[in-house]
Amino acid sequence: MKYSPTAALGQLIGRMGRMGRKYGVEWWILVVGALIIAGIIFMAVFAHYLAPYGPHDQSAGPQLAPPSAQHWLGTDNLQRDVLSRIIFGARTILGVAILAALLSSTIGITMGLISGYSGGFMDKTLSLVMDSLYSFPGLILAIAFAAMLEPGILSITIAVAVIYIPTYFRLVRGQTLSIKEELYVEAAQAIGAPGKVILWKYIFPNVIATTVVVFTMNVGDAIMIEAALTYLGLGLPPSVVDWGMDLAMGKKFLPSGQWWLITFPGGMISLLALGFTMLGEGLAEILNPRLLER
Q: What are phi and psi for residue 75, nearest 5 degrees?
């Protein structure tokens, strides 16, 4: 049968309509969030093809030129094209936020599984450490770690990742404590299944759905934290193209009327964070078993 793009598009639209009728507004929240994220990822991946100038090109146009047909988002005080810096800056903020969420989820989930399943002294020790970290406000904790590390992408990734490890730990530990009392886990223990097999074959699959939702929301939060650290001068060196860096450099020109230097980077930070938040909210509702029963 010959492939027809029109027929495939019609099937996709029909399938999305059926999902929308099944899940309601939560589905469309998820779709809008996913489209926002996909658009910015596309922009970051194909930055070299989409950006009209290089992010460090200081001969792109006149100094502090407002948005125009030649420079859609204007230029900055170093004659660099703001649109090009927005496009290339997506790579930095996406990379840091996603890597930080992956790092924190890997460590937090692993420690939560081990702590909840093993119990005893290890569980008490890990819980005490994680509760201590959790008691600190996230931004203040990130600032403390960023101040101790050298400026750089790896350093800011670690600083952002640390503040989310307790979130995954507490969530997974609580679910592990409940699931390990289930009959199928007791049966696996009775036949002599090793602890690591029970953890990864019987317990982990039952906690992953919830952690996926937390992951998407944490990426959105990590975007704001990364931008805040860079804005405060604690995250990245000035040579790295980043929306938070552009926001910090553009703030001093706002009183003189150069509004575009902070409006567009700030708007992109908010838009990307909103996309991940909407994706997480949609997933949270769709993966809710009570909703699936409707």
A: -130, 165
